[in-house]
Amino acid sequence: MRRRVFISACGVALIGSLPGNSANTDMDDLQILLALAEAVVPDKDPATWQSSAAADELASRWRSLEDSRRNDLKTALRMLESEATKFEEGKKFVSLDKKQRTALVRGLLGRSEDFASNFWQLRPLIVRSFYSSKLGFERTGYRSTTQFIGYPEHVELAEIWE
Amino acid sequence: MAGMKYDAIVVGLGAAGSVVVEDLSGAGWKVLALEEGPWYNPFRDFAEGRAKRIPTGIVYEKNSLRPNMVKAVGGSMVFYAGVFFRMHENDFRTRTRFGCGSDWPVSYQELAPFYKKVEVFSGASGSNTNIFEAPREPYPNPPHPVSKGSQYFARGARALGCHPAPTPMSILSRPYNGRPACTYCTMCGQGCMVGDKSSPEMTYIPAAIKHGADIRANHKVLTIETSNTGRVTGVVFKDQDGIRHKAHSDLVILCGSALLNPTLLMRSRGPAHPEGLGARSGLLGKYLMCHVGGRYMARFPEPVNGFMGISGGVNVQDFYDGAPGAGFHRGYTLYVSLLPGPPALFADWYLENWGEELVAIMNSYNRMIRLAVVGEDQAHITNMVTPDPELTDEDGFPRPRVVYRRTENELNLFSNAIDTARKICRAGGADDWEFFHISDSSAHPLGTCRMGDDPDKSVVDRWGACHDVPGLYICDGSIFPTSAAVNPALTIMALASRTAHRLIRKRGS
C-alpha cells in the first residue's frame, strides 16, 4: 500500500514539474487535503494520513467528486496554503506541525465564512473515509455488521426477566 | 382487469392493508390489492442494497416537522426496527382519565383478541413481565437476549425504582412457522434479508397470495369512485405502464397512511360528494400526530457494543402516564435502540466536532448506548395534511402538503424524557458524556382521518367505516384519535384485523 502511494506520488511530481501541467496542482491539493485530514481526524499513528486505507479512501472520494464541487472545495485548501505562508514565512500547510495546523484551521473557521462553508463539506468526506475504513473500525472497536459474532465478553445472558 | 368486479379492493399494502388483504382473502373473498410502491425481493434487493425508497411527493411547510412513510409492498414496516408494543388500557380513555386528548370509540379489551391474533401470526418475541401493560397471555416467542448495554440501562432503571422490561419485537427469537430466527446482523433498517423480521412482505403477503389475492405493486390509485347516491363503486388506478383502469367493488378499504389518505379522499369527488369523500365533518386531514421522537446517548466504562444486535432491548414505561406538574400531558416510553453503524454513520449523523475532540468521542464509540424516546403528542387541529395549492404530482393531482409544529407541551415532554434517560444511565454507571436530540422527522404519522362515534367530530366510526360514504373503510394509522406513547405498528395491524373480522361477519350474516 505504502509503496503504491509513494510511486504514484513520484510519478505525478515528475509530470507536474513540467510548465503548465495541472497534475502538480492536483497533487498539491490532495496533499493539503490529507494534511487537513490529519487535523480533522488526528490518529495516534502519524503515518495514517500518508499511507493507509483511510488515505486511499479519501483520495478516491476526492477524485470522485464532480469537478465543480471539487473546485469549490479547492478554494478552502488554497486558503489553508496561503494562510500557512502568513503563519510562518515560506511555510506550506503540509509542513506545519499538528498543533499549528489545528490552530490555523480554527483561526480560519472563526474569520472566514467562505472557508467555514467549505470546511464543513470537507469534514464529512474525511470523517467518512476514516471511520468506514478497517483502521477506523479498529480505533472505535466496531465489528462488521454482516455477521453477528456474539455479545461482548462478560455479558451474562442471564434470564433476568423470568 | 378493467371492469372486473371484486368483493373488496384494498388501497395500500403497508401494515394495515397487508393484514386486511390476508384476512379477507383467507375467508374466501375475491380481493384486489393495489400498492403504488415497488415489491422488493428481500433476498436480492436487501442483500445487495438495491431497495431504494421511491419519492413520496410530500411537500413540507417551512419549519414543519417532516413525518414520512414508505411506498412499498409492506409499507414502512419493510424498513422499520421491529418494535411491537401494544397500547395500554389508559391510552383508549385519555379524556376520561386524564382530561386530555380524546377517548377512543374502541376499548383495549375489544382490541386485545386482535393484538393476540397479529402477535401469533407474526411470531412476536417478548415477555409478559411489563407491569404497565394489561394482563396478557405469553408471547408466542421468548424475548431476545439482553445485550450488555440493555443490562446497564436496566440496572440504572432499577436503582431508581423503575420497572424495566424486555421490548416486544416482531423479530423472531427462534425459528417459527418455517422462518428462521434472527441472526442479529443489524440490517433491519435496510430490509431484512434473513426472513426473521415479521414485516408484511414476509408474513401476511405470502399468505394472501396463497389465498388467491390479486396483489399489484407499482399500481397507483387515482380516485375512489362513487355512485350518484354516494356509495362506493370502485377505484380508478394506473398500472406500471401508466395505463388507466377501473376496478369495481362496493367495498373499498383505504390503507394509504395518514399522509396520503386525505388528498386521495379529497380528489375523489362525485355527485353526492362534491368536496371529496369523508369531508363532511371538515376534519379530514386535520389532527396529524407524529409522536415526540428523539434519541439520547450515554457512555459506559466498558465496551457494550451498542451497534450490535437489534433495536428494542429493554424499555421503561414508568412515565407512560405522565409526570404530574411537569408541564405536559401524558408521557413516554424509553427503550434501548441500535447505535448507528458503521461508526462513520454515527459521526456523520450526530457529531459536529473535529480534531482531538472528535477522536476522543469516537474512541469510545463501542462504550455507548442509544436510547429512543417515543412520547405521546397531543392532537392539534392546526397540524394537518392539505392539498398543496400549487404543486402537483405526475398525474396533475395536488401533492400532499404537511404542516406539523410542536407546542410547548411536546417540548416539555421531551425535556422530561431526556432528564429521565440521563438519570437512569448515570445510575447505571454512565459517565457525564451525553448526546441527545429531538427528531425533526417521524416514521409514525397518525391521525388525519380520526375515528369517533360522532360524525361531526370524526371521519370514520369505531369500525373504520367512513361516516358519510357507504362502502368506504379506512383502517390504518390515520384513524388514531390519539397517538399513545408506543410505536404504532401493532395497533395499526390489530385495528385492521378487527375491521376485516367485522366485514367478514357482516357479509356472512
Descriptive overview:
The complex is a heterodimer of chains A (162) and B (509). Chain A has 162 residues and is mainly α. Chain A has one domain (2-135). Chain A is built from seven helices and no strands. Chain A has helices spanning 2-16, 22-40, 53-64, 67-87, 98-111, 113-131, 134-140. Chain A starts with a helix and ends in a 22-residue tail after the last helix. Chain B is α/β, with parallel strands linked by helices and 509 residues long. Chain B has one domain (8-508): FAD/NAD(P)-binding domain (3-Layer(bba) Sandwich). In chain B, 23% of the residues lie in helices and 18% in strands. Chain B has helices at residues 15-26, 42-46, 94-98, 108-122, 148-159, 204-210, 261-267, 343-350, 356-362, 408-427, 489-508; strands at residues 8-11, 31-34, 59-60, 66-67, 165-166, 214-216, 220-226, 232-238, 244-248, 252-254, 292-299, 312-316, 332-337, 368-375, 384-392, 398-403, 434-438, 441-442, 472-474. Chain B has a six-stranded antiparallel beta sheet, covered by helices on one side. In chain B, strands 6-2-1-10-19 form a five-stranded parallel beta sheet, with helices on one face. In chain B, strands 3-16-15 form a three-stranded mixed beta sheet, covered by helices on one side. The longest helix of chain B has 20 residues, at 408-427. Chain B is globular, with a radius of gyration of 22 Å. At the A-B interface, helix 6 and helix 7 of A face helix 5, strand 5, helix 8 and helix 9 of B.
